[in-house]
Amino acid sequence: WTTLVSKTEVATADMGSDGVGSYVSTWQFDHGLLTFGGDGCVDVLSSETPGWQPYAGAIEKAKLDTLSNIRELAGGLFKGCKALTELRLTNDGRTLKHFQTSDMSDTKIEKLTLPASINTIGSNTLHNMTSLKRLNIECLNYKVANTSGPSYYVLYGCSALEEINLAGDYYKETFYDFLSTDAGNNLVMGLAQPTKLLINGREIHTVKISASETKNRMFNNLSNIKYVVLDKSDMSVPSDIFKGSSVKHVTVYATNPA
Questions:
Q1: How far apart (Å, rounded) are the C-alpha atoms in residues 153 and 216?
Q2: For an engineered disulfide with 118, which of 21, 94, 139, 247 has Cβ 3.0 to 4.6 Å away?
Q3: Tens digits of per-residue pLDDT, 200-236?
Q4: Could you tell me what percent of the chain has a pLDDT over 90?
């Protein structure tokens, strides 16, 4: 380990409608902990070869700097971080909006929280995180970027996943219809093994679907869902929606099942 490495770097980035400009990124590595952020003007942190890359193999924990204003994480920021077991994406109430990094599959993270501020998740950001056991989701209205093929499945290849916990007060009223959203569909499709769905730490057994369209094998490997209500009159219901599921009873109000 390096006792302390602290860097301030000037990098070039695409500033969107403002064109190409420069920003200052800061990071510090100290006894296995990587703290990264910016100068208060930075809102995008994206790189395939971040400055801390030479120390990637020794990084055990990583967190956003509490003084940074990072809104987006992208690129291979955690490439080669094979000892990384903990990633903190919250920074004292400041807003991280877009979490679209790649190479998370290199990490050994077992528990990950997606904070409420996030509204975009990269389609392959969480792919093949084979150590991930528990995913805590505080964000409800997120979208999945670049959805196509297996990339459509947020948790594709997460072969150790045991629990998905939906956290936050808004889930008290909306969790029944969570699986009807694009976020919900993308989340639960492609689960590699039996996985429990929890609401604020409480295991649930019944869900209600009110969307006009559901997905093939939508309940595949959701091991604790036993009862389903399909209650939208124009709903299209695939014939294999419950294949591989633990659902025991279905109440259907749909008028045009496929």
A1: 12
A2: 139
A3: 888 888 887 776 667 777 788 889 989 888 776 666 7
A4: 22
The predicted structure's pLDDT at residue 187: 76
Residue 148 burial (CB < 10 Å; 0-12/13-18/19+)? exposed
DSSP state of 109: -
Residue 115 DSSP SS3? coil
Provide the whole-model pTM. Answer: 0.82
Q: Which two tokens stand for residue 41?
A: 């003007």
Selection from 35, 41, 45 nearest residue 11 by Cα: 45
Its sign, for the CA torsion 127, 119, 168, 210, is negative
Q: Are strands 33-38 and 20-30 parallel, antiparallel or unpaired?
A: antiparallel
Q: Using CA atoms, how far apart are residues 241 and 251, in angstroms rounded to an integer?
A: 14
Other CB atoms within a 10 A radius of the CB of residue 28 amount to: 16
pLDDT over 80 (residue 147): no
Q: How deeply is 12 buried, as exposed, middle or buried, from its count of CB atoms within 10 A (0-12, 13-18, 19+)?
A: exposed
In this prediction, residue 143 has a pLDDT band, given cuts at 50, 70 and 90, of confident
- 139 closest CA partner among 193, 70, 186, 191: 186
Closest CA to 193 of 218, 224, 165, 162: 162
